[in-house]
Every structure is written in structure tokens, then in C-alpha cells.
Amino acid sequence: MTQLHAPAVPADFEGVGYTKSRDGFPLEAVKVPVPKPGPDQVLIHVVCSSLNPLEYKLAQLNFFGRSPPVVLGFDMAGVVVAVGEGVTRFSVGDAVAAMADSNGDGGWATGGQGGYALARECFTASKPGSLSFSDAAALPLCFIAAYLGLQPNISKGDTVYIPGGGGGVGHLAVQMAARTLGAGLVVSSAGGPQSLALARASGAHQVFDYKQEDVAAEIDRLTDGRGVDLVFDATYSEKGFVETAAMVREGGTWVVLGVGPGKTTRTGETESPVDAILAERGARQVNANMLRYFSQPELMDAAAQAFFGQAMQAAMAWALDGRVTPHIGKRIDSGPAEINAELAAMAAGHGPVGKVVVNVDRERAA
Ligand SMILES: NC(=O)c1ccc[n+]([C@@H]2O[C@H](COP(=O)([O-])OP(=O)(O)OC[C@H]3O[C@@H](n4cnc5c(N)ncnc54)[C@H](OP(=O)(O)O)[C@@H]3O)[C@@H](O)[C@H]2O)c1
């Protein structure tokens, strides 16, 4: 466990988040009290964070029905500055990586002095000393999502298709499948030269340009017409869902990250042919949705907590031994202007490949 000097905790700080309960984007600077850890929670002085699409979606739709202001920045790497009752694995001064509850507050802050946010003990892991705060902060949400989608569903030797291997979740999923979870063949796709390069560098054996090539025909060719054993689709593309569901072999598995076909806008449901496509081939559909564990707290039982704890520990251990390497496409300072610009680019599909890291405590992040 790496021990660091824990900074004194102020009464409040200027966070970055949304202040309206609808259309809360662009984010604003907002003064908020530093929260106190409840049972099984740690309070983290945030050194680095990273951006996720969840943050602009929450600002736009506030779909957990929170009362603003809501500070964002769920991915965190930093130093424990207080622990709640019942916390056994962490103490003040520990260097950690963590994910804040998605229906809680995150740790983005203005001023470069660090932010403050709570994390449950099960979503917190010790940060190895040789792993940088930025690498550690690029992992939690995307790594857990990829782990939730793949680890329970993959079998040794499986042929796997992971569309979007240049994405935040996608590149980590490709690395996991190819380097750790025992896939036999990992096929991926991406929509431009840099994404294609990241998917290849992440260990995909075959990568296709989904904007230029007929990926379904290539999968057909690679599998002698059988289809793949497993698809893990983390693209939130309704058009893509229809295509990737049809790539699963008879009796195979289609794992979708998030709310699933017909619901991705969260503003209304649309008809989706995905269920029928999967039923026709006797394939199983699995919804891997981390957010459900926060909207339905009864799901966060002991087994779920143990699973997420295992995922966070794997994130740190595998990053340490090189089995996963988060790709950091850009680093920014933690101000509303910088964060808004990058979230807007991400929402428009023009962001850098991989992850954008936010330096929240400028001195310690350096
Ligand atoms: N509910 C949950 O549990 C949960 C957890 C984590 C993430 N998510 C959601 O999952 C999605 C992905 O997150 P992320 O962080 O990976 O976002 P990201 O970094 O923006 O990646 C999205 C990727 O999807 C790819 N893509 C889009 N359409 C595609 C298609 N038709 N075929 C192949 N690839 C396609 C893009 O490829 P190119 O850029 O190369 O075109 C991009 O790499 C987001 O919507 C996020 O909100 C949900």
C-alpha cells in the first residue's frame, strides 16, 4: 500500500458539474461542501480523473433525478483523506483509484488544488506506487464496464467480436479478451486510422474499418460462416446493434453494455429487431449495465460488491503487470472551459482516441 501525505481537508471546494435538472450542459463551477464519508465509504482527495460519456449524458438528462448542483468526475485517483465506519482496507494517506457512485457526486474541481469525492470501499483499490495517477484514473469506469461485460461471459478459446476497439471501454475490453481472459480470436473494428491503430495495439487479431468495410462479411469469412461465440457491444449504436447481433453463432452470446437496444437515448423506447435476430439463432442476450446497480440499490448485494471489488483490484494488478494499458489521448486541466470543450467533442464523436485525463491536483498529477 503506497502511503502519501494526506492534505488537510477544507470545509468546501469549487467543483465542476451541472446546476440545472435538465439541459445542464455546459457544466459550471459550483461551490459545494466537502462530503463526509458514511459507512463503508472513503473520502478521496482527487489528483486525477478522466472523462466518460456518462458525464455529458447525466448533465443533459439528469436521469438519476438528482437535485443539482451535481459535481461530476466519477473516475478518480488520489489520496484517502478520511474513512467511514466499517472501512477495513483503507486508511488516511493511502494512494487509491476508485469510482464514485454514478448517482452521487464526482471529484472535478477548479483551481488545480484537488477535488473531493466519496467512493464505496468496494469501488476503491490501492494504487500501486509505480502506476501513475493518470493511468490509474483512466481505468475505473471503463475497466469495470469491460470486466462486467466479458469476465462472466467469455470461455477459453472463444472467438470474440468487440466493435469499437479504439473506444474508452473498447480498447480495454480488447486487451482483456486477448491478453487475460483467454479468447482464441479477437476481432475488432474502428472508424478511423487512430482508432484502428489503438484496437490493433490493444491486441485484436483482426481489425476492420466499420465505415469502409463489410465487417459482417469479414466475420463470416473468418468463422467459415458460423459466426462468433461472443459479441461484446459497448458502442451504444442502434444500427451497430442490429449488425453485431447477426454476427453471433447459433447458441452464442451477445453482450450489450448499458440499457440495451431501443433504449439508448433514454428519452423514449424504439422498436429494435435485436431480440428477434438473437432468438432466431438461439443466442443469449446479456445486459451488462453498471448503472442499474445504482438505480436499483437492491442489486448491490454482497455478491455484486465482491465482484466490483475484484474488478477494481484486477484493474490495478493488470495495469501494473502490463496486461492492460489505458491509452491516454489527451490531458486537460480541471476547469469548466477545458472539460466542457472535451465533453462536447466526445458527444460529437470528435474526441481523441482512448481516454482524456483531467489533472485535478496539478502538482501531484505532474
Ligand atoms: N451503462 C453502463 O454500464 C456503461 C458503462 C460504461 C460506458 N457506457 C456507455 O458505453 C458507451 C461507450 O463508452 P466509451 O467510454 O467507450 O465511449 P467512447 O470512448 O466514446 O467510445 C465509443 C466507441 O464506439 C465506437 N463505435 C460507434 N459506433 C460504432 C459502430 N457502428 N461500430 C463499431 N464501433 C462503433 C467508436 O468508434 P470510432 O471512434 O472509431 O468511430 C468509439 O470508439 C457510451 O455510450 C457510454 O455512456 C455504459
List the defining traits of the structure above.
7-stranded mixed beta sheet; about 375 residues; alpha/beta; binds NADP nicotinamide-adenine-dinucleotide phosphate; Quinone Oxidoreductase, Chain A, domain 1; globular; 2 domains; Rossmann fold; single chain
Short structural description:
This protein is α/β, with parallel strands linked by helices and 366 residues long.
How would you explain this protein's 3D organization?
By secondary structure, the chain is of the alpha/beta class. The chain has two domains: 12-139 and 298-365, Medium-chain alcohol dehydrogenases, catalytic domain (Quinone Oxidoreductase, Chain A, domain 1); 143-290, Rossmann fold (3-Layer(aba) Sandwich). The protein has helices at 53-61, 133-138, 140-150, 168-179, 193-201, 215-222, 238-245, 274-280, 292-295, 302-320, 336-347, 362-365; strands spanning 12-18, 28-33, 41-50, 70-71, 75-83, 95-99, 115-120, 124-126, 159-162, 185-190, 206-209, 228-233, 248-257, 284-288, 328-333, 355-359. The strands form three sheets. Strands 3, 5, 6, 7, 8, 15 and 16 form a seven-stranded mixed β-sheet that branches. The longest helix has 19 residues, at 302-320. The mean pLDDT is 97. NADP nicotinamide-adenine-dinucleotide phosphate is lined by residues 52-54, 57, 141-142, 145, 163-164, 166-170, 189-192, 195, 210, 234-237, 240, 257-258, 289-291, 346. Residues 52-54, 57, 141-142, 145, 163-164, 166-170, 189-192, 195, 210, 234-237, 240, 257-258, 289-291, 346 line the site of NADP nicotinamide-adenine-dinucleotide phosphate.
